[in-house]
Amino acid sequence: MEETIDPKPTESFMQRKADGQEEIEHLQNECLKLKEARSLLRAFYKTDADLLPDHKEGTLMVRLHHMANRSSDVAITELCEQLDATETKFPGTDLRLLLKPGADKNLRDQVV
To answer: Are residues 32 and 67 in the same domain?
Structure first.
């Protein structure tokens, strides 16, 4: 008499294995996104910027220079919009910070 194997436990095992693989891939993608975000923030903190106080309007515009690539510029633009919405005051002043990405060049180099 030949012994037969019930396929249900095998199918269940294979499904759990596939689910586990999907979870691993998801976690790997999340780790990659986190590394990209950290890299973007490091670039944000290191980028050149022009500081333009406007005492009449009560603002301090921080005009950031372009990032290394367009996708970084887009991400930084979204970050700036979120930070501007907080209406943060520059420490020690009554000036509200306004972050503007994408200045083409340093304003101090312009001839007026």
So the answer is: no
Instruction: Say if residue 17 is in the same domain as residue 39.
Output: yes
The more confident residue out of 4 and 105 is 4
The residue segments making up the domain with residue 23 are: 11-46
Q: Note the pLDDT tens digit of each residue in 53-96.
A: 999 999 999 999 988 888 888 888 988 999 999 999 999 999 99
* 60 close to 95: Cβ distance less than 8 angstroms: yes
Number of domains comprising the chain: 2
Prediction pTM value: 0.61
